[in-house]
What does this fold into?
Amino acid sequence: MPVPKWLVVARNEYRIRINSIRTIRPYFPYLVIALLAVYVAFIAPAVVSLFIDDLLAFFLSQVALAMVPIIMFIIFFYFIILPITYTLQGMQAGQVEIFLAAPIKPSDVLLGEFLGVMPFYAIAITVMAGFFTAALNPLGLDMLQIAITVIIFVATFLSALWIGTVIAALVRTKFAKSARGRDVGRALSLVLALPMIAVMYAIMGGGLLEALADPGTSGMVRAILSLLPSSWGAEVIVNFASNPGNIGAVGFETLTRFGGLVAFFVAVLWLGTKAANRAYSIEPTTFTASRAKPDGFFYRTVRYLGGGGSFGTLLVSVFKDYGRRLENLSRIAYIVGLIAMVNIFFGGGFDDPEAALLMGLFLFPFLAVLVVGQVTAGGKESLFIYKKTPFGVGRFVKARLLQGWLVAVPIGVAITVVSMISIPQTTLISLLTYTGFMALIVAANVTLALGLSLLNPEFSENTRTQMFGLIVNAQVAMFVSLGIFIGSLIVLDLGFLNTVLLQTVVIWLLGIVFLYLGKRRFSRIE
Amino acid sequence: MKILIRTDRLSKYYGKGGEIKAVDELGLEVYEGETFGLLGPNGAGKTTTVRLLNCIIKPTGGTATVNGYDVLKEETDVKRVTGLLAESPGLYEKLSAHEFLEFMGALYDVPGDILPERIDDLLKLFGLYDRCDYLLEGYSRGMKQKILIAAALIHDPPILFLDEPTSMLDPRAALMVKDLIKGLADKAGKTIFICSHILPVVEELCDRIGIINQGRLIALGTIDEIITQTKTKTLEKAFIALTGGVEDKELLAWREQKGAGA
It folds into this structure.
């Protein structure tokens, strides 16, 4: 009897995900199960015991009534966007053609893809469920309540994962067939995380917990969240915490909420399989090719700033290639959004201009890396174009540096100005002084980031691989800034202005050195 | 002679009102055991035709049968009797060659007791047996092409669709693939449908050819018949005569502009 097709796809998907640990593949499931058993039996209770009083107080408090649904919603949302982001980052339509040419139903492909990745998400679900049950256990929950709690976690998050898998397949069908679509997909993959970061920042620094302690506010939040299936299970869990060992006291609520959740799980499974036929197609969705407009004022200015002539033309070309990739623009949107949220949720207490600049100092290296961190879009082939031309690599590096400055410095200046003018103590002199310093620091960070990315260029077209390289470079650049800051302001006590001055000089020096080394390394790549 | 592939006014239109005619009322017949070549310039509709005949996309109009199965009503049966080497296929780069062929075999329901031996045989045939445990991401383009041809053969289908089968291969590998195609046609009696714009490959392998341009079939017959029809001496000349080309006098016109020779 032939193996069910969904099992074939699931096995394949599973193999792909664990390809990096192929040597221990036969033992991997047993290893994971054993580790999870140890976690559930010993580690989770031990960790929980450290904060048991706080946790019990939390579960019995007014805050928990709204907070647990919020936590469940964040994780629910995360499980939805995770498969979508994964798909958007590495979309390939070719693999869809393999399935379409084979005698397999789309619903089997969808189910197989879901089941193939499920074991990895099951690990995360077990960790969360283990923690929650360990935290609730001291309240005296009976076996039925604990079992229902575990089922709630499984049903809630597997529903989210299934929804995410179905949307991911639909999104792949929509975007993967054209270069433009793949670019849109990669751009979306980054900004999708922003709403979740906003909620997390609101909890950490935005006073959300304090607001939820107010019955009026928490009641309103609960009313909104209760519309979402992620909250139905959360309400049951909070009810169990208030009525341990007495499921009868909350029997009706448990029946309706838990029953609703199970019905929702079944419904999304059914709807997903119905949507499967739409999720696997390689029919072109558009025949509109993007067209370039004649150069306007902006590009004419860039050409002029590049000295006109052939270098000006080269700079404009580099700028166009950068600006026409939505992925690059989404990276800028991401970092600007991040800085805005930091200011909104953590910036309320700033009472002097220097404090308002702190976040910028630490996030500008990240901005610089996101702007110039990927120097080899188009793979090695584009590098060889420059290597073939006279002084090509040097001119390419110069053009990328100028382009990086022209993008990052205005953003840095705008962020600095906006951050400072909201502080009443800011004077015109301090505004101009710090804005000037910040512009220099951003320019230095761009130089450093470009040098780092030239030293370790990433030729892969895969967004996941690129992002890994970017994050490594961002960490290096950020630690440089952080190191100088701590050394100067805290250890040497040089004061804020001197720290900014020192930071400017040191990052410039490091940037020049790294850029020189990077250019040399880049020229020698074969 | 039994007709294995038949299309009747098969069409695939895109865009508003169907103004883009990827395939336009295609009518052709391919006989059992025949090696048929579909030629055409880039964007002529060759790949769309192959996708229609493999039930990967649905026609806008007309019908087609493959091995007697209707592409609209008997999709699964059509897929079982065909093997496809797609023009730009997606490989699972994180699988080894052996794992990928195992996956493809399972998709096509190759029995478990036959599959391992068949995978080994195909890997040996393509000279990749020693590298069967290497991940496909480390393979060269030519090696990937060989794996994809092996994947198309894994369920031993009676009909093979090969879209640009030798385009990425070095001369030695291309020769091997051509010999394999000849062997599959002559000794195994397979019906082979080749899409290509590499004329020598088509000349060498195909019993009959069709030339498609802008979605329409503009010539059909043996190579000699097409050369005779177009009153030319070679297939290349016949192809240019049918599909249009650049006049000799236009080829260097760009040099006559001022400063172009700098």
User: Anything to note?
Assistant: Chain B touches chain A through 33 residues (CB under 8 Å). The mean pLDDT of chain B is 89.
